[in-house]
Amino acid sequence: MQMKVCRAIFLLTAFAAGTVAAMAQYKSLQPPAPEGEMNGMETSQAKPMDMSKCKMEMSKCKCMDHGMESPVPAGTMRITFGDKSAEWTPATLAALPHQSITVVNGHTKETLTFSGIPLIDLLTRLGVPDKSEGKLLRLYLVAEGADGYKVVYSLAEIAPAVSHSTVIVADAMNGKPLVGSVPLRLVNTSDKGLSRCVRNLMAVRVLTVE
Asked: What is the pTM of this model?
């Protein structure tokens, strides 16, 4: 009787061990479950991101940002003051009253005569005051060339009521039209040399010191 009981226990143990081994082998043969499938709950498979739409949305955000501006069209100069802006080309500037100034190239000692439009005349069209006093003294501008070269002027340097300097957007030099990607040049009569002379003038931004 004892032998029969021992044999029954042995057979049950062997059967249990075989069942565990069989289950382990079955699991190893199954493909891995997709991510997001847990406890019988399935989630929809994520779709690949459309990068073109992503770039489009990013560009929209940039345009909404006051610190970002849309690209300046080729051959054009853009002036901005707050939420106002104006774009100028040599053709549109040609119809405005011109003024001539004479400067000396500090390197070559050559005397140059430029003809163009006083910058203050273009600024006042956007509401920039032509006088610089009190809080207006905080206004300044950044002029940028097509090559990324930038210079800074205060409004006081440009306003005739305050400064003896003349700052023009020139479209001609020594009687000949300027050439370049943007054939305009910012020139002033106060500096010794032409260090703040901006070739291929692309942008003028009027800002305020906070």
From this structure: 0.67
